[in-house]
Design brief:
This protein is mainly alpha-helical. Helices cover about 80% and strands about 0% of the residues.
C-alpha cells in the first residue's frame, strides 16, 4: 500500500470515531484530509466524502438507535428533506467556482469549530 492509501484508511477510521464520539459529520475530517493530504480538488473531495459518509452514518445511526438515542417522530420527514437538500447542495457545489466553494467550506469549518469549542 502506498503511504497515501494508509493515510486515507487512518483518516476513515478517525472520521468514523469522531462522528460516533462527537456527533460531527465525517466531512469535517474527510474533506480537509482529501484536499490537503491527498491533493484532491475541493469538489472531488466533497463528493468522495459524501460517498464515504453513507456507511459511517448508517452504522452510527443504527448504534445510536439501538441505545435509544434516536428521536423517531420526525425521522422520515427529516430524511426525505435531507435527501432533497443534499441533491440541491451537490448541484450548487458543482456550479460554484472552486475558489468560492473552498472558502465557503473553510468558513463552515471555522463556525463548526467555534460551536464545538463553546460546548
Amino acid at each position: 500500500m502506498l503511504l497515501t492509501d494508509v493515510l486515507l484508511v487512518l483518516t476513515g477510521f478517525f472520521a468514523g470515531a469522531a462522528s460516533g464520539v462527537l456527533g460531527v459529520g465525517g466531512g469535517l475530517i474527510f474533506v480537509p484530509a482529501l484536499t490537503l493530504g491527498a491533493g484532491l480538488g475541493q469538489t472531488t473531495a466533497q463528493g468522495t466524502s459524501l460517498a464515504a459518509i453513507v456507511p459511517t452514518s448508517l452504522v452510527g445511526a443504527l448504534t445510536a438507535d439501538r441505545e435509544g438515542n434516536v428521536l423517531r417522530s420526525g425521522l422520515v420527514l427529516m430524511a426525505i428533506l435531507g435527501a432533497v437538500g443534499a441533491v440541491a447542495g451537490a448541484v450548487l457545489a458543482l456550479v460554484l467556482p472552486t475558489a468560492v466553494l473552498t472558502r465557503v467550506f473553510g468558513a463552515f469549518l471555522i463556525v463548526s469549530a467555534w460551536r464545538l469549542w463553546r460546548r
